[in-house]
Fold these 2 entries.
Entry 1:
Amino acid sequence: MTRGPSAGLALAVGVLVAVVTRPAVADRDAVDAARVDWAAGRVTAGGTGVADRHAPSPAVALGTSRRGADTASRRRIAARLAALPLAAGGTLADKLADRAIQARVDAAVDDAITVAAEPETDGSWHVTLAVPLEAIRLALGDPRALPAAGDAGPPVVIVEGVTAQPAIGWTIGGAAAATLWIASARDLPAWAKDAPRIKARSATAGAITVDRAVGTSATLYLLVARS
């Protein structure tokens, strides 16, 4: 059986489509992969919601495709969270057997923040969602009790010379508080320029000791790596 010109053309087009599409899909998967950004304090991932081809119009398709995009992004984030390191050792996965913790982590994923959302002309969506690392830290314990006199101390403290590795749950001078991990002093945000500075002395067993205690559990600590 011989192939006519049309059959040969169809085969060539099919091969071309496969060659062009596969890298595009691979590129999209790489873009959408979940990533941990310790400096920004969040885990992000992308998701694509394909338009329903049976929808009467692209505008109608946008409703269901957005939900699909959000779901895909949340699934990628949830899968990445399990491998987050804990300051005291192990990973988040070690804590998820506790149903209360698992429920709080699930709630944090459900409440993921929309970083970007791009509708397409065919009715599909592409989104990027983020879950704050602080939400995961809080999910590991009971809610913080507010001191009778209210919160005191500076809202932001810079900790210089940190040798500890980024992880969830480090205490700073005895305070269990929010942290952001800064690669160098050059990368400190402008809004922290007037924050008090202290120096890290050591890091062990989930605790970073400092030269003087500054801040409370309501403080955001910017941990600057030792250069």
Note: Confidence is low (pLDDT under 50) at residues 10-23.
Entry 2:
Amino acid sequence: MTAATLLATTEPDATLQGGLSPRLPLDFEFDAAHVATAPAEARGLDRDGVRLMVSRGDDEPVHATFRDLADHLTAGDLLVVNTSATVPSAVDAELADGTRIVVHVSTELPGGLWMVEPRRPLPGGATSPLRLPASPTRARLADGTELVLLRPAAGSQRLWLATVEGDVDLLAALVAVGRPIRYSYVDRDWPIDSYQTVFADQPGSAEMPSAARPFTADLTTRVIRRGIGISTITLHTGVSSLEGHELPYAERFVVPPATAAAVNAARAVGGHVIAVGTTVVRALESAVDTAGTVHPASGWTDAVITPASGVRAVDGLVSGWHEPAATHLAMLEAVAGRAALMRAYRAAWDAGYLWHEFGDSHLLLPYAGA
């Protein structure tokens, strides 16, 4: 993998709205030794055998294993997980001029529109970004489905708005001929089951809501036996490979009435609400009012969580490890604070934690232990 400076500057990025900057003042280099290239199971581990760093307030980070998660929470706390299931959203296609490409189908939008990413196929099955002229064109998918690529999405040279020609169920076509999206750091294709969490039952995500991947049925049972609740939201994620100047785009979400009630009840008795993944933070923060009460909600959220906006609905976060251009880092800073996040990322780097969807985990608790 080509090395890239990780988290290299404290200066706000003027190309991001509102001065949003996910970058932190860390100066190490991102390299292949810190990347999980395969699922934990292929590396001889159970899913819950990946490493877990626990960052708690001003304390030094604690190194643990994900199966120890319940040991770092308290009876009365509430975990909120995402039930979105991953769709095999990468599909071979051919442009009108005969160029062979791969299309990553990202997000279904209102009005029959889709957001898609045309990509260049690489030897071995991975892909790389592909810049197309900013004019309408067509792409025929492997099953014959015709996509009309209308124009680049606002603020992006990479993502396109598209429509499907005719009365075609695009999700059904993807299930028939698609495969999971993977990037070059993963060295082979893995089956779609490798990209599902134990909570997945609502198909719709282009890429796995990966923070919950280390959960197993046994771990979930242990969590509940310890008096820690589990509630659900659904948020369908698009492609995660955003560039440094791109803000997160709108995504579909549902916060059910039962989850809103559980969050409010936990907070009322002094429990902590722990979001399992940045998708959960985005959903809950799209459903909370200024007084901190979460309401049932559904629709589309374009919320961008920053240190300036803060968080009202969550008290902690289970997450993976994020790269420098990810605006998720601004969300993590909003939850945990800059000093704790810097300390954790330095410790994770020095200890050889693994990044990306098959990698290790991070529990951010911005409060002291009991």
Note: Residues 27 and 104 are 32 Å apart (CA to CA).
